[in-house]
Specification:
Length: about 525
Amino acid sequence: MATKVSKIYSAATIGLDSYLVEAEVDIGLGLPSFTIVGLPDKAVDESKERVRAAMKNSGATFPQHRLTINLAPADIKKEGAGYDLPMAVGILAASEQIGAVDIVGQSLFVGELSLNGDLRHVNGILPIALFAAREKYRKLFVPAVNATEAGMVGGIEVIPISSLGELIKYLRGEMQIAPYSQGKRDKDLVEDEDDGCDFAYIAGQEQAKRALEIAAAGGHNLLLSGPPGSGKTLLARSLPTILPDMDEEEVLEVTKIHSVAGMLQNKRRSLVKKRPFRSPHHTTSNVALVGGGQWPRPGEISLAHRGVLFLDEFPEFSRSVLEALRQPLEDGVVTVSRAQGSLCFPARFLMVAAQNPCPCGFRTDPDKACVCTPSQIVRYENKISGPILDRIDLHVEVPRIGYEELRSERVAEESVSVKKRVKEARWRQSKRFISSPIKTNAEMRSKDIKQACTLDAAAERLVGEAVDRMKLSGRVYHRILKVARTIADLEGSELISASHVGEALQYRPRERTY
């Protein structure tokens, strides 16, 4: 028997980007063996048994010869079970059990095989589909459960495969499989369920609602402080209901992150259309929040990209975890460095933090006495460093609501009407930054602030006095101007007045207790 060689194309994802992987299959003389080279991890090495069983249970013949598969490039470690399908197709091609060589040579194959030959869900299909379209491949063969996700990308035929046996018949020309269509994608997708949070159901707290509206309009970070039960969590969970819907570019960004993180297992939710809301527990680790691991994966801050990151019990988070937020809050990206190299994940999120004013929670409550000592209060406040507080634009006190207000029949303003104002403010920002990647006022850099934040004479005097008397840093000064710009946008004003600056200054934190 002469040596037979085949080459099948697949792809792998590192971070949020994909690269080409060639599965080279060699069937040669020698005792029966099966070897995979090319820096495979344990999951790839175990694919030998999955491929062998899947081929036999799909009506194909597994070659009883010396079988070697090389996953190139050989200097990059391969992980995951997505190489099962290209290896199986490579064996079938090398053993001349399939034809359609022209299709195989111009296509990408990705999928995990079960022992009976069925194809299972694979993470990171969307970046692979984008890569395939960019590199001008004709077809992309994916598990049927991944078809909705891959179908988001235009310029390439997505072929949904349910089993290896079905693929074999297709490659032999014995059956036809219709490419996944745009219309089928729209039919398969379902809207995210309403979580029931709405401004109309929040009694009182008008100042906090106003701060949430400003935060939503300009993408500003927010800190809610108040006694237990005052409604901080409910306010935070209602924030997504007033945020404008994501555009197509943002939907693609967010879906790509969730795809790589393995959060699109349900084929009915292959497109993230609703802005993310992430609420990690205060015991979360640095890696879970920021991202990383041996093979870096997006963390909570990247999963909250273009959405909301809610940090409840803010001072209870580890000091190192909070300090790790410095770069993402400032730059909108997080860089994860490992021995193999560095990866950047997007992290442009709106952070909402909630905390009690002291360990017992009742220091600002007029009806309940605080039992904390001054030293306990100082230690509690100092858990959050000054640089982190500087990066939070809006600091709001949330008082406890009395019985009369809780039972009031007065109907509060609904989220829909607030969302309309927010959308109008965002529209003004998009016009202002039409030639820039900036989407919200919070993303403005120093040069953008000089161009966009025009103050009248009274506003200039007020800002100058505030900087001198409050000893504000340059970062805080710029953040005050950004908030004032957003308040002016909500009112439809191009000029920032003293009233806009005055309201922005009201959201600066009170002096710490020392």
